[in-house]
Amino acid sequence: MVHRYKRIEFxxxxxxxxxxxxxxxxxxxxxxxxxxxxxxxxxxIVTDLxxxxxxxxxxxxxxxxxWPQVQSFSRTLEVPPLKILAPxxxxxxxxxxxxxxxxxxxxxxxxxxxxxxxTIHVTQEFEEMDNMVLTPFNIREKSSVSRIIKENYDGxxxxxxxxxxxxxxxxxxxxxxxxxxxxxxxxNGRIANxxxxxxxxxxxxxxxxxxxxxxxxxxxxxxxxTSLFHIVPCGVDTDFFxxxxxxxxKQKVAKLLxxxxxxxxxxxxxxxxFQVEKGAGVFVDxxxxxxxxxxxxxxxxxxxxxxxxxxxxxxxxxxPREELPVLYNAFDVFCFRSIAxxxxxxxxxxxxxxxxxxxxxxxxxxxxxxxxxxxxxxxxMLYDRDMTSIGGGILAEDFAEAIADLLQDDVNRHKLxxxxxxxxxxxxxxxxAKCLLQVFQNLNVKKRLVGQQVHMPIGFGLNENIxxxxxLCLG
Length: 475
What we know:
Elements: E1 5-10, E2 13-18, E3 23-26, H1 29-36, H2 42-48, H3 55-65, E4 82-86, H4 102-114, E5 118-122, E6 132-134, H5 142-150, E7 155-157, H6 169-172, E8 177-181, H7 190-201, E9 207-210, H8 213-219, E10 229-231, H9 246-257, E11 267-271, H10 280-289, E12 294-298, E13 313-315, H11 324-330, E14 333-336, H12 347-354, E15 358-362, H13 365-371, E16 376-378, E17 381-382, E18 392-393, H14 396-408, H15 410-426, H16 429-449, E19 458-463, E20 468-473
Parallel strand pairs: 4-5, 4-7, 5-6, 7-8, 8-9, 9-10, 11-12, 11-14, 12-13, 14-15, 15-16
Antiparallel strand pairs: 1-2, 2-3, 17-18, 19-20
Helix pairs in contact: 2-3, 4-16, 9-11, 10-14, 12-15
């Protein structure tokens, strides 16, 4: 084997400097033991180290040092977890108990699930969890940026498209950066413009995290390189959101709200912000069409808009998240009639499904993907390429008809309720975390293959006169 490596120490860590291919390799026990015997023959090394490592581990390490013929090295033992930076400009800690904004809930739950498989460094206060490290960070302070660089992260998970100050991280951190797309369009083109700004800044080992295929289809109109998009669907905590006896759930909610009529009529529910683009008016109109059915909506309401609620309609305002499971269980049908362009998934529909409640949703990309055949999808008039807030139109009569059919057919409703729960079991936060972890692993492989710096922004070269290494700090 040609000896083309030089061992160096940097920031109290050991590395092998590959003099031919200009890369740094981290040194663990196996790599060190093999490197010390690198002038020996392969069989001699295998025999010499047989009491400490398996033959497969030794040969994999030797292949690893023969790079580029073999470009990856995987060990089955002592693999350190990935270290992910999750910066966020604004904290929502303490607000999530009342939060009905799906993106905030989704991002928080994803980080919690990801912390089981990786060490997560958050920049805002977060609930105490194993593998969750608070790392205060200010992008405007040079010392703060320097500390972040020295951490040698394996990846960065950003929060939202309009946190443009975070874009400068791409100049400092030579690791994969992933931007989640919780909203693909809307806001009168602001979201799409922001996406294109990020796309123009990204390197070939960065990427977008999307919740479903339709977002990729939308942006394929603007971006040819759709390989930058990686699907990581949202999930649900199926232990927190799980079925219970519907009669008992109705009694609990009736007592909680002091509304005995909840136990006396079929109950159709909705939980989210009560706004025009969320189909608030459609929900109220459907209630008027079905006077013998009780309609209940939970969520913040637009102060500037005054709704004329019919007698069979209850609006109970925002509710804390610990109350949501019993509300979902009390509903005979969950109605999600959003007409917002920003509806990429429909997290509340999935939470209802986890509780075994049948959803009726509009035929938008996100909710339709979540429900599949475990509920009823109501056709809507769609504006597929619209970039404003409203993505289409829905008839209240169509929703009322779909709800009535379910309430009149107990057998079909119970069958769909079982399918809804099974669908929810496929979309857990644990599965989402594993999917995202694979994205970071794949991007790191891509980064190595394209010859980018692996661990830190430094360069090195061999001085033939003094036979030593020159280290150049670039940060």
